[in-house]
């Protein structure tokens, strides 16, 4: 029996939406950032999905750059007390970083699927 045809999906759209990189319909995540074992629509095994530290590094660098830049701008512009900066930027850090984590992980897994990236083993090094 022939495999059903799945047209190529957008890495950015499916990843950001947390959808299956093959069919674009099923859910990639079963929790906030836990990857589901299988696609609930096409049955793709998500065992290949291993984004590693990629999303966390990107979130730390991008989110840190934005939050630190804003905090420095606020401090240099208005010179508020330290507690004001903490009250504003601690929640903002959480919102920005947690908000970017899931879409970035989805995009990295979708790109991993698109590029057929996997761990190097003696079998696929030959
Ligand atoms: Zn699917």
Explain this structure to me?
With 126 residues, the chain is mainly alpha-helical. The chain has one domain. It has helices at 11-17, 54-78, 82-114, 122-125. It is elongated. The model has no long low-confidence stretch (mean pLDDT 91). The protein binds zinc ion (ZN).
What is the residue-averaged pLDDT?
A: 91
Give a list of the ligands. Answer: zinc ion
Helix content: 40-55%
Output the helix-strand order. HHHH
Total separate domains? 1
The tally of helices reads 4
Proportion in β-strands = under 5%
How many beta-strand segments?
Answer: 0
Low-confidence stretches: none
What is the element layout, followed by pairings?
Layout: H1 11-17, H2 54-78, H3 82-114, H4 122-125
Helix pairs in contact: 1-3, 2-3
Bound molecules: zinc ion.
């Amino acid at each position: 029996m022939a495999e059903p045809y799945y047209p190529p999906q957008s890495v950015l759209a499916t990843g950001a939406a947390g959808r299956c990189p093959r069919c674009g319909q099923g859910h990639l995540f079963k929790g906030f950032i836990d990857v589901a074992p299988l696609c609930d629509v096409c049955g793709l095994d998500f065992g290949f999905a291993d984004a590693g530290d990629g999303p966390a590094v990107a979130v730390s660098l991008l989110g840190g750059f934005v939050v630190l830049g804003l905090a420095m701008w606020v401090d240099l512009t208005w010179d508020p007390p330290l507690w004001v900066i903490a009250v504003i930027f601690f929640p903002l850090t959480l919102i920005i970083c947690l908000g970017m984590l899931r879409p970035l992980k989805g995009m990295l897994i979708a790109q991993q699927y698109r590029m057929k990236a996997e761990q190097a083993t003696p079998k696929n090094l030959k």
